[in-house]
Design goal:
This protein has one domain (3-105). It is built from four helices and four strands. The protein has helices spanning 3-29, 55-63, 86-94, 96-105; strands at 34-38, 67-70, 73-77, 81-85. A four-stranded antiparallel sheet has the order 1-4-3-2. The longest helix is centred in the N-terminal third of the chain and has 27 residues, at 3-29.
Length: 106
């Protein structure tokens, strides 16, 4: 996995560890398999680094590729949203430590 994708995926996981249960509940209730999250939702969950001090620095690099592939999941990156499969959200909720370890080792 490309380092920029890994950093963005870690931000997404950090966000889901905080908001994932609520999002999964609403998404499941609506019968949806994916959820669109506005990019501004991730600002507070960005893990700052020397290369990417701001979330938008990282986001602008990854959005050119349009998606992140991780295991069997495809996370779509658009101009205004990150589209996350419900199955990935549930995996993060159920076992966040395992998912983090898999991202770090990829």
């Amino acid at each position: 996995m490309d380092p920029t994708e890994k950093y963005l995926l870690l931000d997404i996981i950090t966000y889901l560890m905080s908001r994932g249960k609520e999002i999964a509940s609403l998404t499941s209730s609506a019968g949806q398999e994916k959820v669109k999250v506005e990019i501004k939702s991730f600002f507070w969950y960005h893990i700052k680094s020397k290369q990417y001090p701001r979330f938008m620095d990282l986001y602008n690099l990854v959005k050119k590729r349009r998606r992140i592939k991780f295991k069997e999941y495809t996370i779509e990156v658009t101009d205004k949203y990150i589209i996350i499969p419900l199955s990935f959200i549930k995996e993060v909720i159920n076992n966040p430590q395992k998912v983090l370890e898999e991202v770090y080792s990829s």
